[in-house]
């Protein structure tokens, strides 16, 4: 038996002993779902949400909207299904493939990585090119390779061979980075935490609130599409929901990595969920942010705060809907976002679920009206 097979079997046995949350996180992060091609993730979300939802509908772009509750304020809870990826741009005569990137990739993260092309005949493995170290001139060794100089290699020798694999321009491309359990089972590495971790929080919220019984709100869980290329699903889902208040779930930016400027990020793994006080796309409603802080303190949930420039999230579109909606962006600290391998702490995930459940249980019509009011 090969070493790789033994490793896969060992991981499978280890995962089988874990709780359902771990398995859910694995399924969600392993699923390919670049912007505009979210179908594999959508299938998981619908199957997981269905048992706890009073109804499920879709917007015109493919966002999933599940509802719990029939009376009270309309609370929109948002997480996006799409991940950074790409699409085939052109098939070269030599069989190499140029790729249109989808989302805000770092050029440093692109060379010599594994990918999967979702072609008409099924998934096709590929790797991005990198110059061989033995022939790279000394002056080029420290230079970042621009994305225009990076190609996908699916092993094809000609354009005809590439097309015979079922590859055509426009086919989606997803990063390949299997879910791994790290550090004694309390930290996880995977691709697509941005924002499958938020999707998983919504599913766990639905499960816990269904078991708890009634709550004083109508909850609309929106698993949105195309966030990474312009917050598009949040806009269309908000038009369908017409929320009174919005809670966006996202990844935060961890500072506890050597070399990180503490002025650019403030969160640490294991420090609890985070509340964004500022990002480039959205300013949170101040009364709603204060309410989050109050509920976290009363529930003994550690809460970090952060201000991040160069960051956009779905709450920016939610807050502009329905004449103006109080929103906040709540985040799970994450290392190495917008690359193949991100890391989260399971403790932060669990505390985020606790916080979200506490928030929606304490929101009611008078509280939402107070938060929404700007009367002097």
Verbal overview:
This protein is α+β, with helices and mostly antiparallel strands. The protein folds into 2 domains: 3-83 and 191-372, Zn peptidases (Aminopeptidase); 85-175, Peptidase M42, domain 2 (Elongation Factor Tu (Ef-tu), domain 3). 30% of the residues lie in helices and 25% in strands. It contains 10 helices and 17 strands. It has helices spanning 3-16, 20-30, 39-49, 159-164, 193-212, 232-241, 286-298, 315-318, 346-362, 365-372, and strands spanning 55-58, 64-68, 74-80, 85-91, 97-102, 114-119, 122-128, 152-153, 172-175, 180-182, 187-190, 218-224, 245-253, 274-279, 304-308, 327-334, 342-345. The strands form 3 sheets. Strands 1-2-12-3-13-16-14-15 form an 8-stranded mixed beta sheet, with helices on both faces. It has a 6-stranded antiparallel beta sheet with strand order 5-4-9-6-7-8. Helix 5 packs across helix 9 and helix 7 crosses helix 9. The longest helix is centred in the middle third of the chain and has 20 residues, at 193-212. The radius of gyration is 21 Å and the shape is globular. 45% of the residues are buried.
């Amino acid at each position: 038996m090969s070493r790789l097979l033994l490793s896969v079997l060992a991981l499978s046995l280890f995962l089988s002993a874990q709780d359902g949350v771990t398995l859910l996180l694995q399924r969600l992060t392993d699923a390919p779902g670049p912007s505009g091609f979210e179908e594999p993730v959508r299938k998981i979300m619908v199957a997981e949400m269905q048992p706890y939802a009073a109804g499920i509908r879709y917007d015109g772009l493919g966002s999933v909207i599940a509802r719990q509750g029939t009376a009270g304020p309309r609370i929109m809870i948002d997480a996006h299904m799409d991940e950074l990826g790409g699409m085939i741009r052109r098939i070269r005569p030599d069989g190499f493939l140029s790729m249109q990137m989808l989302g805000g990739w770092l050029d440093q993260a692109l060379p010599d990585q594994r990918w999967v092309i979702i072609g008409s005949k099924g998934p096709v493995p590929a790797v991005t090119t990198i110059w061989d170290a033995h022939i790279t001139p000394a002056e080029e060794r420290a230079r970042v390779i621009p994305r225009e100089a990076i190609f996908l290699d699916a092993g094809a020798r000609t354009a005809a061979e590439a097309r015979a694999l079922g590859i055509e321009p426009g086919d989606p491309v997803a990063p390949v980075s299997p879910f791994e359990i790290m550090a004694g089972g309390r930290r996880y590495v995977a691709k697509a935490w941005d924002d499958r971790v938020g999707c998983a929080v919504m599913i766990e919220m639905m499960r816990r609130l269904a078991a708890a019984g009634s709550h004083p709100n109508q909850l609309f869980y929106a698993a949105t599409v195309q966030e990474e290329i312009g917050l598009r699903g949040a806009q269309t889902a908000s038009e369908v929901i017409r929320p009174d208040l919005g809670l966006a779930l996202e990844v935060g930016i961890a500072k506890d990595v050597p070399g990180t400027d503490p002025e650019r990020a403030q969160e640490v793994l294991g420090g609890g969920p985070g509340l964004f006080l500022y990002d480039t796309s959205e300013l949170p409603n101040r009364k709603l942010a204060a309410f989050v802080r109050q509920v976290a303190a009363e529930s003994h949930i550690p809460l970090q705060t952060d201000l991040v420039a160069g960051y956009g999230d779905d709450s920016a579109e939610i807050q502009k809907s329905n004449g103006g909606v109080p929103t906040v962006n709540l985040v799970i600290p994450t290392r190495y976002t917008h690359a193949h391998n991100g890391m989260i702490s399971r403790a932060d995930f669990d505390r985020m679920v606790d916080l979200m459940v506490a928030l929606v249980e304490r929101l009611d019509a008078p509280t939402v009206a107070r938060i929404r009011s700007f009367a002097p």
